[in-house]
Amino acid sequence: MEPRKGARSAEKPARTASKPTTTFNAQAFLDSDGMSRQIVEYKRGEAIFTQGDPCDHVLYIQAGGVKLSVLSKTGREAVVAMLGPGDFFGEGGLAGQAVRMGSASAITPSTILLIEKDRMVKLLRKQHGMSDRFIAHMLLRNIRIEEDLIDQLFNSSEKRLARTLLLLARYGGRDRPARVVPKISQETLAEMVGTTRSRVNFFLNKFKKLGFIEYKGELPLKINSSLLSVVLHD
What we know:
- By secondary structure, this protein is α+β, with helices and mostly antiparallel strands.
- Helices cover 35% and strands 23% of the residues.
- It has helices at 26-31, 117-126, 128-154, 157-168, 186-193, 197-209, 228-232; strands spanning 8-11, 36-42, 47-49, 57-63, 66-71, 77-83, 88-89, 103-106, 110-116, 180-181, 213-214, 221-223.
- Strands 1-2-9-4-7 form a five-stranded antiparallel beta sheet. Strands 3-8-5-6 form a four-stranded antiparallel beta sheet.
- β11 (213-214) and β12 (221-223) form a beta hairpin.
């Protein structure tokens, strides 16, 4: 997929890499070595790339949220992951993928950085410390996606919804202390959980009555720590 017209080009002057830290600083990583990239704004529901598109870029979420999905030959869509600010995606090209194995779309208005695959490869080869932290960052994300798939296979729709809400609110993350779920539709939540919209609505109202969430009949909503009890309960 070619970058959309109106995308802004951004080029940072070269700077000396900072000393390695235990926390991966994605923005500093992207700013290093004068890496050239494009910044693109996407509206809610807009496609970022589509299954079968060329793997020309690695992408980074600066703001907003992204849904990764796969479409079967029969036209059935499966949601693979929901990502938020600070996450990379579309990195398959770094491992030799020629075309996208799935699709990505914005679930909220989003700011995405598109980094040319070849430039990303050069930077990873040049800065070994940054490369190690980038790999660790991607492995953690892949572990989370694996947990999502296990959750889809073995847990009830109620527990899957609770876990999805916690992940969307980036519960426990340093960047979202408010624990607020971004504004997405109940239909999208149903796709993510693998159930119907009516079931999502039923469980949201149940969570509200139990005090697990603060909800006024439409998203966004606020997560309370007590929602963890749904996920942890056997």
